[in-house]
Structures are given as structure tokens and as C-alpha cells.
């Protein structure tokens, strides 16, 4: 019964369905970043399986000639970051993925998870960027620390996806009100747009998209020096509109059987999604 609701946000259980989604987006001039779903693992063997799923994904992108249209997004928890000795385990796994991505001319972006993982994720990013300078990272505007992190990241070649943040965080580390989060987002966005890196605006918020457009103009950014990113299945019409205006747009496309955590975060973000979900139990 939940399947049609899950399908709104997840491209499918398996790789071929993800490739169909990438091609459909490409037909509208929209690029993709693919997320093989999987997080909160408990065993090293799962970390290896997740790494291998990304290697298979990159291999398929290469075979299908889609390396120029799609990159990959990685959750380090799925690579074992949370296990004992997990920092090194995750680094080794994601390094293999970066090598495979580089070999087909595409990139890897590290998703950001809960606040306890930020130091480890940024340290892994710094290691990876030595050999793969185009490796990107997501930063969360709701974290009090992020303005400082963003200042350090707004450097040449650095790809930074700015998002509001999707995890439940305590007030000791994160802004709680929508207004404070939005203001922090704009401050971070200004630093990124004024800097030398490649900002990736990860938001569906119409006001923030508009502010990003204006800041890009103010700082004289060329259209290919930043991009908009939105989640698969959310505000599709806006994704199409931005792409039709000649702007760079990339959809974040999750796929895989392990969709529960991702799906629950999308429900939590928006009461309307919960209504949509509950209605699927009553209308069949
Ligand atoms: P909001 O104020 O939440 O939403 C603005 C408007 O967008 C809403 O009014 C609605 O019209 C639409 N909208 C927003 N969310 C939904 C939804 N779920 N369903 C339907 N409509 C919706 N978070 C992380 O913590 N780590 C990450 O690595 C990360 N990566 C992301 C990558 C991308 C490309 C994007 C777009 C988001 C990512 N997020 C990540 C999630 C992000 O932190 C927010 O939780 C999410 O984007 C909602 O915030 P918003 O900026 O869209 O604004």
C-alpha cells in the first residue's frame, strides 16, 4: 500500500530503474546525483556491499554513456563510519568509489548526516580532495558551526552543497526555528557565492532559490560556476523551469531497497507528505 508513496521519492529498488530516472531527467536538461540507499549499518560486510554497489553503479553509468550526466552521493555511515575504526574503514571505501568516479570523468559528493559525524566527514573530505580535488560535501545551515566550516570550504575547486539540514538536532548545536535556519542559510550562501568554490544550492525553498539567483548576479558568477539541486520527486516543475532558463540543475536520485530512513526524513519535513502517505491507506 505504501509503494506508490515511496515511489514518489525513490527512483526504484534496483539500478536499472535508477538509470531510467537519469535518462528521463537528462531529457529535460537536468543532471543527477545518485544515492544508493543504505545507512545505519552494523557489520563491516555491509560496508563492503555498499561500496560494491557504488562501483557497480559507476560501471553502469560508464557503459550507458551517462558519466557526463550523473555523479554519485555517498553517506559515510553506509561505508561503516559509525563502526569501531569506522573513520578509516569509510575513508578506504569511499576512496575506491572516488577512483572509479574519476576514471569515468565524474565526481562524488559526501552527504552530511547527524552532527556527531561532521568532524570525521570533513576530515575524510580533506583526505580525498588531495587526490580527487572535485570531491564535494554537503553542509547543513542549521548547525551553529557551519558558517565557520563554509568559510574554510569556499576555496578554489571546492564543491559545496548547502542544505538546511534534515536530522533532529539539539539546540546546543543547531538553530531550531525556521527563521534562524533560513537566515543562517543566506549567510552561508553569501559566503559561498562570494568565494572561489562551486556552490550547489540544495533547497526547494522558492525564497532561497530567488536569493541564490540574485547573489549569483551580484558576484558576477557565470552560469556554469554554480548549480541548483533538488530531491527526486520534489518540485519537479521548478526543476524544469530552472533548467529551461539555462541554469544548471541536478536532481538527487535515491534508489535501492533500503529506503526506510530516507523516506521517513522526507515525511518528517512536510506535514502534507504525511497526509499523502496516510491517504494511501484509505484509498486503494
Ligand atoms: P523547506 O523550507 O523544508 O521547504 C521549502 C518548500 O519546498 C516547501 O514549502 C515545499 O514546497 C517543498 N518541499 C520541501 N521538502 C519537501 C518534501 N519533503 N516533500 C515535498 N515538498 C517539499 N540534508 C542533510 O541533512 N544532509 C544532506 O546531505 C542532504 N542532502 C540533500 C541534497 C539535496 C539535493 C537536497 C535538495 C536536500 C538535501 N538534504 C540534506 C535535505 C535538506 O537538509 C532539507 O531537509 C530539505 O531539502 C528540505 O528543506 P528545503 O530547503 O527544501 O526547505
Characterization of the model:
It is a single chain. The protein is an alpha/beta fold and 284 residues long. The protein contains eleven helices and eight strands. The chain has a domain at 135-221. Helix content is 50%, strand content 14%. Helix 4 runs parallel beside helix 5 and helix 10 crosses helix 11. The N and C termini lie close together (8 Å). Bound molecules: flavin-adenine dinucleotide. Flavin-adenine dinucleotide (FAD) is lined by residues 111-112, 138, 140, 161, 163-167, 202-205, 229-231, 234-235, 252, 266, 269-270, 273.
Comma- or semicolon-separated keywords:
single chain, 284 residues, alpha/beta, 8-stranded parallel β-barrel, 11 helices, 8 strands, binds flavin-adenine dinucleotide, nucleotide-binding, Proline_oxidase, oxidoreductase
Roughly how many Å is the radius of gyration? Answer: 18 Å
Secondary-structure element string:
HHEHEHEHEHEHEHEHEHH
Instruction: Determine the strand fraction and express it as a percent band.
Output: 5-15%
Poorly predicted ranges: none
Helical amount among residues, as a percent range? 40-55%
Q: What is the overall shape?
A: globular
Oligomer: single chain
Count of separate DSSP helical elements = 11
- Determine the mean pLDDT: 94
Bound molecules: flavin-adenine dinucleotide
Structural class: alpha/beta
Largest sheet: 8 strands, parallel, barrel
By DSSP, the count of extended strands is: 8
Question: Could you give the distance between the termini?
Answer: 8 Å
Q: Order of strands across the widest beta sheet? A: 1-2-3-4-5-6-7-8
Enzyme class: oxidoreductase
Keywords: FAD, Flavoprotein, Nucleotide-binding, Oxidoreductase, Proline metabolism
GO molecular function: nucleotide binding; proline dehydrogenase activity
InterPro entries: FAD-linked_oxidoreductase-like, PRODH_bac_arc, Proline_DH_dom, Proline_oxidase
Amino acid at each position: 500500500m505504501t509503494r506508490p508513496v515511496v515511489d514518489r521519492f525513490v527512483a526504484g529498488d534496483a539500478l536499472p530503474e535508477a538509470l531510467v530516472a537519469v535518462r528521463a531527467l537528462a531529457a529535460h536538461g537536468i543532471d543527477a546525483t545518485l544515492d544508493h540507499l543504505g545507512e545505519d549499518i552494523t557489520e563491516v560486510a555491509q560496508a563492503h556491499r555498499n561500496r560494491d554497489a557504488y562501483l557497480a553503479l559507476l560501471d553502469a553509468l560508464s557503459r550507458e554513456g551517462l558519466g557526463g550526466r550523473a555523479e554519485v552521493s555517498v553517506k559515510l555511515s553506509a561505508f561503516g563510519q559509525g563502526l569501531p575504526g569506522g573513520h578509516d574503514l569509510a575513508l578506504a571505501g569511499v576512496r575506491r568509489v572516488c577512483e572509479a568516479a574519476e576514471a569515468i570523468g565524474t565526481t562524488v559528493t559526501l552527504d552530511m548526516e547527524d552532527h556527531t559525524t561532521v568532524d570525521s566527514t570533513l576530515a575524510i573530505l580533506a583526505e580525498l580532495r588531495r587526490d580527487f580535488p572535485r570531491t564535494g560535501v554537503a553542509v547543513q545551515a542549521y548547525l551553529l558551526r557551519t558558517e565557520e566550516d563554509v568559510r574554510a570550504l569556499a576555496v578554489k575547486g571546492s564543491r559545496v552543497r548547502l542544505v538546511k539540514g534534515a536530522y533532529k538536532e539539539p539546540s546546543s548545536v543547531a538553530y531550531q526555528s525556521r527563521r534562524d535556519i533560513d537566515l543562517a542559510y543566506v549567510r552561508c550562501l553569501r559566503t559561498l557565492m562570494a568565494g572561489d568554490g562551486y556552490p550547489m544550492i540544495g533547497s526547494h525553498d522558492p525564497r532561497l532559490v530567488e536569493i541564490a539567483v540574485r547573489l549569483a548576479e551580484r558576484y558576477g558568477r557565470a552560469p556554469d560556476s554554480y548549480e541548483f539541486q533538488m530531491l527526486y520527486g520534489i518540485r519537479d516543475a521548478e526543476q524544469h523551469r530552472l533548467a529551461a532558463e539555462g541554469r544548471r540543475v541536478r536532481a538527487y536520485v535515491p534508489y535501492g531497497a533500503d529506503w526506510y530512513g530516507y523516506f521517513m526524513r522526507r515525511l518528517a519535513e512536510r506535514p502534507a507528505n504525511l497526509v499523502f502517505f496516510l491517504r494511501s491507506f484509505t484509498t486503494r
